[in-house]
Amino acid sequence: MRPLLFEKYEGLGNDFVVVEGTSSMLSTDDVMRICDRHRGIGADGVLFTGVSAGRPFMSVINADGSTAEMCGNGLRCVALHLVRRGLVDGRTFDVDTDAGPHAVRVLEVAAPGRVEVSMRAPSLAPRDVPARFDAPLIDGELRADGVVLHGTAVSMGNPHLVTFDAPDAARLRLGPMLQDDRRFPEKVNVGFATMKGRGAMQLHVYERGSGWTQACGTGACAAAVAAVETGRASRGAPIEVVLPGGPLEIVVGEAGERVRMTGPARHVFSGRLTLPL
Ligand SMILES: N[C@@H](CCC[C@H](N)C(=O)O)C(=O)O
């Protein structure tokens, strides 16, 4: 029997159990049980954080126990946690992730907290996504379950496929099918976007390892990048991405530049549990 101290955070309803330490502290089974919404705490994933050799870090394990390279909403929560706990000096610092360092700025600590993240530069190169296509997939034709739709494949450090023309009625079955498409060898987060003018869109994301979520930060960035790449939105101008859990503000920089994401992060409660659950 082992005690575990944890914190519950959420960003637009994308919710996480945050643990100070490294991912080796918990087994895959522990993570799955902790994230179970009926028999555990309930979360879309577990985030591990702390400061190692003077550098803040975050690692991400999805609710099904799989590892993710990056999590946008999670990074806002971790940034808030590091400031609340006094583990960093000031409110502007870098956090190391499996997708590289990301600069964060905690704008507001009191609820509802607000954090700006300089996300890494997106890549559409198939080897980066990764995806088995000969060239970047930009509004490329896809077929799934008899439906013809168009998709753009984007890496935000983790893999995303964004479509703007999937019929609403087909979304629930297309999400899991596209996620398991063998052209995405590491699976893919699938975003279903609808433009609302050039500066706004609605987005639903079927995430790797946690299914349909209230919000996905990297998914919102990938959708904004896809909108810019396909001429639906403009570079350098804020794009409001409205997810089921609420809006994120995304700005896509010039090609090769980073994407800026700004949104809320909230501490929900602190807890202690005894493992194994
Ligand atoms: N919800 C996250 C993304 C979490 C990781 C994702 N499920 C994956 O496996 O890539 C976000 O806010 O970005």
Shape: globular
Mean pLDDT: 97
Bound molecules: ligand LBFN2T5F
- List the uncertain runs: none
- DSSP helix count? 4
The gyration radius over C-alpha positions equals 18 Å
Biggest beta-sheet profile: 17 strands, mixed
Number of E strands: 17
Distance between the termini: 9 Å
What is the string of helix and strand elements? EEHEEEHEEEEEEHEEEHEEE
CATH superfamily assignment of the largest domain? Diaminopimelate Epimerase, Chain A, domain 1
Beta-strand residue percentage: 35-45%
Helix content: 10-25%
Helix/sheet category: alpha+beta
Examine the secondary-structure arrangement and name the CATH architecture of the largest domain: Roll
Number of domains: 2
Explained architecture:
This protein is an alpha+beta fold and 277 residues long. The protein folds into two domains: 2-118 and 264-275, Diaminopimelate Epimerase, Chain A, domain 1 (Roll), CATH 3.10.310.10; 140-257, Diaminopimelate Epimerase, Chain A, domain 1, CATH 3.10.310.10. Helix content is 16%, strand content 44%. It contains four helices and 17 strands. The chain has helices at 28-35, 72-84, 171-179, 217-229; strands at 2-11, 14-20, 45-52, 55-62, 67-68, 92-97, 100-108, 113-119, 140-144, 147-155, 159-163, 189-195, 200-207, 211-212, 239-243, 246-252, 259-275. The protein is globular, with a radius of gyration of 18 Å. The N and C termini lie close together (9 Å). The structure holds the ligand N[C@@H](CCC[C@H](N)C(=O)O)C(=O)O. The ligand N[C@@H](CCC[C@H](N)C(=O)O)C(=O)O binds next to strand 4, helix 2 and helix 4.
